[in-house]
Amino acid sequence: MESKEVSVLVKNLEKNKTNDKVVLEILKTLEKDVVATEKLLRETKVGVEVNKFKKSSNQEIASMVKKIIGSWKDSINRQKRSKLSSTSTPSPSTNASMHDKQSHKTGTSESKKDDKSTHINKSTVAKGKPRNSRIDGVNTTLYNHKLRDMVVKALYDALVKDSTESSSLILKLATEVELEMKKFSDPDVNEKQYRDKYRVVYSNLISKNNPELKFRIVGGDVSPARLVTCDPKELAPESLKKELEEIAKKNLYNAQGATVQRSVTDRFTCGKCKEKKVSYYQLQTRSADEPLTTFCTCEACGNRWKFS
């Protein structure tokens, strides 16, 4: 569908916004005939107009709006990823030209190995300065969605810090992690749950207790899906796991040591089975000037009673 036709539908949608029947018909047409592109959405403002009906009291309209907006966003994202992959992968002729230049400059094979380090700010790494999307010159605005783009940028900055990997690889991983988070909870449906998951993932990536995690992700040992879905304790390094186990054992021991000590005596008689093998303990259950309460358990039949 051409942009002029879409613009007409947008105007009709605005004029008939109180007529649910007309709105539904227009939305169905947009869903069926519109192939979303950045240019089309920017020129016609159709996304803005459709999004106004997201909170419609008519559930059918609200549901269809969410479906349309989600479909358009996915379409735009696919186009951007396709464009990104095509621009980040040099053509054979470009590769040949780059290798020729390197050979001409150095005359050694070592210079060709440096070729795969493109998109890395080598001076920054050499000086020990932390890398980030701004320094690397990486565009993390992929979705035209304020929250999702913010998350991609934060994930990129967390993963690229102290790394010598190419920025294209880091951006790919940051994007994949965010997509797994979106699968877990769509920010357009449950923003709070999405934000909560982001906080957990980001905290794990920058945790000083687990500095190896981001290198394990970049190295492929931990997949984006596992990072998002598994218990954070599972991602802890072995040294930290052992430390946590020791703490748990110590806490269990202390808890067991704090239990009330029982004594067994023949001074009491069980009122149920008349046995004299009775265990007991005493606690101050009332005010300090009151006598202790004695709790008894018959070791033979399990009968329990207390007295003061």
From TrEMBL:
<dbReference type="Pfam" id="PF08711">
    <property type="entry name" value="Med26"/>
</dbReference>
<comment type="function">
    <text>Necessary for efficient RNA polymerase II transcription elongation past template-encoded arresting sites. The arresting sites in DNA have the property of trapping a certain fraction of elongating RNA polymerases that pass through, resulting in locked ternary complexes. Cleavage of the nascent transcript by S-II allows the resumption of elongation from the new 3'-terminus.</text>
</comment>
<keyword id="KW-0539">Nucleus</keyword>
<dbReference type="InterPro" id="IPR003617">
    <property type="entry name" value="TFIIS/CRSP70_N_sub"/>
</dbReference>
<dbReference type="InterPro" id="IPR035441">
    <property type="entry name" value="TFIIS/LEDGF_dom_sf"/>
</dbReference>
<dbReference type="GO" id="GO:0045899">
    <property type="term" value="P:positive regulation of RNA polymerase II transcription preinitiation complex assembly"/>
</dbReference>
<feature type="domain" description="TFIIS-type">
    <location>
        <begin position="266"/>
        <end position="306"/>
    </location>
</feature>
<keyword id="KW-0863">Zinc-finger</keyword>
<feature type="compositionally biased region" description="Low complexity">
    <location>
        <begin position="85"/>
        <end position="94"/>
    </location>
</feature>
<dbReference type="GO" id="GO:0042797">
    <property type="term" value="P:tRNA transcription by RNA polymerase III"/>
</dbReference>
<feature type="domain" description="TFIIS central">
    <location>
        <begin position="147"/>
        <end position="263"/>
    </location>
</feature>
<dbReference type="GO" id="GO:0000977">
    <property type="term" value="F:RNA polymerase II transcription regulatory region sequence-specific DNA binding"/>
</dbReference>
<dbReference type="Pfam" id="PF01096">
    <property type="entry name" value="Zn_ribbon_TFIIS"/>
</dbReference>
<feature type="region of interest" description="Disordered">
    <location>
        <begin position="77"/>
        <end position="137"/>
    </location>
</feature>
<keyword id="KW-0479">Metal-binding</keyword>
<dbReference type="InterPro" id="IPR036575">
    <property type="entry name" value="TFIIS_cen_dom_sf"/>
</dbReference>
<feature type="domain" description="TFIIS N-terminal">
    <location>
        <begin position="1"/>
        <end position="79"/>
    </location>
</feature>
<dbReference type="InterPro" id="IPR003618">
    <property type="entry name" value="TFIIS_cen_dom"/>
</dbReference>
<dbReference type="Pfam" id="PF07500">
    <property type="entry name" value="TFIIS_M"/>
</dbReference>
<protein>
    <recommendedName>
        <fullName>Transcription elongation factor</fullName>
    </recommendedName>
</protein>
<dbReference type="InterPro" id="IPR001222">
    <property type="entry name" value="Znf_TFIIS"/>
</dbReference>
<dbReference type="InterPro" id="IPR006289">
    <property type="entry name" value="TFSII"/>
</dbReference>
<dbReference type="GO" id="GO:0001193">
    <property type="term" value="P:maintenance of transcriptional fidelity during transcription elongation by RNA polymerase II"/>
</dbReference>
<dbReference type="GO" id="GO:0031564">
    <property type="term" value="P:transcription antitermination"/>
</dbReference>
<keyword id="KW-0805">Transcription regulation</keyword>
<dbReference type="GO" id="GO:0005634">
    <property type="term" value="C:nucleus"/>
</dbReference>
<keyword id="KW-0238">DNA-binding</keyword>
<dbReference type="GO" id="GO:0006362">
    <property type="term" value="P:transcription elongation by RNA polymerase I"/>
</dbReference>
<dbReference type="InterPro" id="IPR017923">
    <property type="entry name" value="TFIIS_N"/>
</dbReference>
<dbReference type="GO" id="GO:0008270">
    <property type="term" value="F:zinc ion binding"/>
</dbReference>
<keyword id="KW-0862">Zinc</keyword>
<dbReference type="InterPro" id="IPR035100">
    <property type="entry name" value="TF_IIS-typ"/>
</dbReference>
<dbReference type="GO" id="GO:0032968">
    <property type="term" value="P:positive regulation of transcription elongation by RNA polymerase II"/>
</dbReference>
<dbReference type="GO" id="GO:0031440">
    <property type="term" value="P:regulation of mRNA 3'-end processing"/>
</dbReference>
<dbReference type="GO" id="GO:0001139">
    <property type="term" value="F:RNA polymerase II complex recruiting activity"/>
</dbReference>
<comment type="similarity">
    <text>Belongs to the TFS-II family.</text>
</comment>
<keyword id="KW-0804">Transcription</keyword>
<dbReference type="GO" id="GO:0005737">
    <property type="term" value="C:cytoplasm"/>
</dbReference>
